[in-house]
Write a structure and sequence with these properties.
Strand content of chain B: 15-25%
Number of strands of chain A: 0
Oligomer: heterodimer
Strand content of chain A: under 5%
Number of strands of chain B: 21
Distance between the termini of chain B: 39 Å
Radius of gyration of chain B: 22 Å
Largest sheet of chain B: 8 strands, mixed
Low-confidence stretches of chain B: none
Shape of chain A: globular
Number of helices of chain B: 13
Mean pLDDT of chain A: 80
Largest interface: A-B, 73 and 80 residues
Order of helices and strands of chain A: HHHHHH
Low-confidence stretches of chain A: 1-30
Radius of gyration of chain A: 18 Å
Chain lengths: 166, 512
């Protein structure tokens, strides 16, 4: 007879992986299964896109927030299945290739923040905008789950911990 | 709290061989109904689920992206490729014990009377009358605790749209949902913090287990084992390999096999098992209810996450094959829909607490198809939108936009890639009819009809009791058997038809 299901609760994860979300308390459940390998090319591309996408008047987001996002994106991709890895990998790659071409340029990651922002703006409004949508959707979902970012956009964190009873 | 015990294939070492009377492939809305009915009747029942088991309260403590990575097929990124003048459609499905019932907003509609009339008149399905289905509805609605959402539970987002409806000359109606003790957290699709949404993992499956049904997670069924025309079990893989990949082999001997893997995957199982029948209809006729959202920014604070996720609907445009339902999406997902890059995007994202949202779906014709994927295990979905359905998209967006402006919205965001928010004047003159399909954002949560039931083997995949034509002891019970689009959220319809199938199975003696 097989073991009964075990979805462990744990209070810590290896390294500083992002587990908290406002009221989501330490000890919230996470699955402990081993994740699949993630292509090493995705993370630098995702970081380059995110820096431009989430830049404010004050400049690029803090390194801490981007590190948080990249770590959680890695965790997402390692657990969300092969199709998700393919979609995110393809969309980030195409964003970094097609985007510059639409602006008559080559290369994306090494460009300045302002150049990347302009490239993404043009890509967003082009017929290839679906490619950028695929990348920005998951980047936004993860980025805006950062506790401080969530607060900044006005989310009060209600009902995120199973203790949201009125 | 649910009292559900699940055997985790993930933790099983090596190969797995099992034997049972009734094997149910898939633990979602329909599979759970069959499992419970057959277990209560005294049959040995085994349920196999490809996805993991995530206890309801555990899921309710997830961040939205954690829910996506663990419980949604393909991380929520599964797509139907649009053919011709059709947008790509994000078709979401569950891959978890409880299936897509775990990911719904809990919306409960019965099969509309005019749909049943069409089934009887055009397809000869004379047994499907409201009177004959009533006991099945009653059973399902009692087990799921279907209740009307009181107006007091409506979010401000929904209230604003309803105000706009009234000012526009039509009314929103209260919705029914399968909840018990809903606290209005507005995040049902990503797990309920109170386990108040009565998805089948906390309703039907525990009842099935209490009557002896065994439920296994992490078990991937690849084909039905056929002996001549008779189903005698299944083969597949246990997902106990490194990183959740297939590991040991899975073999189950069963006297009866019921496929409930969902409208996208059951056709593949039939194809792989060499049971495609003479009709050529397996995997065809797929309807998806193409769905579109309109987001509106108000001057006031909306905080649309406070209140029932879905609480009202509009059927005033049923004659145009359009249905509108309230909804909300987590703030992180909402922020993702805001256009722009850099400061322009950040400025809009900071307004999520002032955003309201409503959704509309098209009661579509069956233009979808499930294909075997030559490069992998997951199916390929294609969808060609009917010309009339395609023409309905601008109309649908206009109705929602006008309602929001009638309620005082400052600007609205349409489901158009790269489009900025538009004011009332700009919206009235916006050339919606000229927007090309690749620019339209479309989603679906309701794939149906890929193994439709019917009266003749030439035009359908299964008979009216779900039995695959020209086979013995092989049945389909999931949304694939729904013969046409419904025009409303299908959970109750699927479970009612599964109850119809299960009651017949309960009375049908197993072959020796």
């Amino acid at each position: 007879m097989a073991d009964l299901v075990t979805l462990h609760r744990r209070s810590e994860v290896e390294g500083p992986a992002p587990r908290t979300f406002l009221q989501l308390e330490e000890g919230a459940a996470v699955e402990t299964r081993e994740g699949a390998a993630v292509s090493s090319g995705i993370e630098p591309r995702a970081r380059a896109i995110a820096e431009a996408l989430f830049a404010t008047e004050a400049g690029a987001p803090s390194r801490e927030r981007l590190d948080w996002m990249v770590r959680d994106l890695h965790h997402f991709l390692s657990h969300a299945g092969g199709w998700a890895r393919f979609v995110v990998g393809a969309c980030t790659r195409l964003t970094c290739v097609v985007g510059p071409l639409l602006s008559y340029k080559l290369g994306f990651v090494g460009r300045s923040l302002e150049e990347r922002r302009a490239i993404l703006e043009r890509l967003e409004k082009s017929p290839a905008g679906l490619v950028f949508l695929g990348a920005r959707a998951i980047l936004c979902i993860v980025y805006y789950e950062h506790p401080e970012v969530a607060k900044e956009i006005g989310f009060d964190g209600l009902c995120l911990s199973g203790r949201g009873r009125k | 709290m649910s009292g559900l015990t699940v055997h985790a294939g993930h933790n099983h070492r090596g190969d797995l061989e099992l034997e049972t009377d009734v094997l149910v492939v898939g633990s979602g809305a329909s599979g759970a109904v069959v499992a419970r009915t057959m277990a209560e009747a005294g049959f040995r029942v085994l349920v196999l689920e490809e996805g993991p088991y995530i206890p309801a309260l555990t899921h309710g403590a997830f961040r939205p992206s954690e829910s996506l990575r663990y419980a949604w097929r393909g991380g929520g990124m599964t797509v139907a490729f649009g053919l011709g003048d059709t947008p790509a459609i994000n078709v979401t499905m569950g891959r978890v014990v409880g299936g897509s019932s775990v990911l719904t907003g809990g919306v409960c509609f019965r099969i509309p009377g005019h749909i049943l009339h069409t089934w009887r008149k055009e397809r000869g399905l004379t047994e499907f009358t409201e009177e004959r289905l009533e006991p099945y509805y009653a059973e399902v609605e009692k087990n799921l605790h279907v209740e009307e959402v009181p107006a007091s539970m409506r979010s401000r987002s929904t209230q604003l749209f309803c105000e706009g409806c009234s000012k526009s000359g039509f009314e929103a109606k209260p919705m029914r949902r399968n909840t018990d003790g809903c606290n209005g957290c507005g995040r049902c699709n990503f797990g309920c913090p109170e386990a108040a949404k009565m998805s089948v993992d906390i309703s039907y499956l525990p009842q099935a287990a209490a009557h002896g049904a065994e439920i296994w997670s992490d078990c991937l069924v690849e084909r039905v084992t056929m002996r001549g025309d008779r189903a005698v079990g299944v083969e597949g893989r246990v997902l106990n390999g490194p990183a959740g990949k297939p590991g040991g082999t899975l073999k189950v001997r069963a006297r009866r096999v019921v496929l409930a893997a969902g409208a996208a995957h059951t056709p593949l199982l039939l194809h792989r098992s060499g049971v495609s029948g003479v009709s050529g209809q397996v995997g065809k006729n797929v309807t998806v209810h193409p769905s579109f959202r309109v987001i509106a920014r108000f001057k006031e604070s909306v905080q649309g996450w406070k209140g029932s996720l879905q609480s009202a609907y509009v059927d005033a445009f049923e004659s145009e094959k359009l249905t509108f339902t309230s909804l909300f999406i987590p703030t992180s997902v909402l922020a993702a829909t805001m256009p722009g890059v850099g400061p322009a995007h950040a400025e809009k994202a900071r307004d999520v607490s002032r955003l309201a949202i409503f959704g509309g779906l098209i009661h579509d014709e069956g233009g979808g198809r499930i294909w075997q994927n030559p490069f992998g295990r997951e199916p390929i979905l294609t969808y060609r939108m009917d010309r009339r359905d395609r023409a309905s998209i601008p109309r649908l967006i206009r109705i929602m936009g006008n309602a929001f402006f009638a309620a005082g919205a400052e600007e609205i965001f349409m489901p158009i890639l790269g489009a900025e928010g538009v004011t009332k004047d700009a919206f009235e003159s916006y050339p919606l009819e000229d927007v090309k399909a690749p620019f339209i954002e479309c989603s679906s949560q309701h794939p149906l009809g890929s193994c439709r039931m019917g009266k003749t083997r030439e035009h359908s995949v299964v008979d009216t009791f779900g039995k695959v034509w020209d086979t013995r002891e092989l049945y389909v019970a999931d949304g694939g058997i729904v013969p046409t689009s419904l025009g409303v959220n299908p959970q109750i319809s699927i479970m009612t038809l599964a109850t119809h199938v299960a009651h017949n199975l309960r009375e049908t003696k197993l072959l020796g």
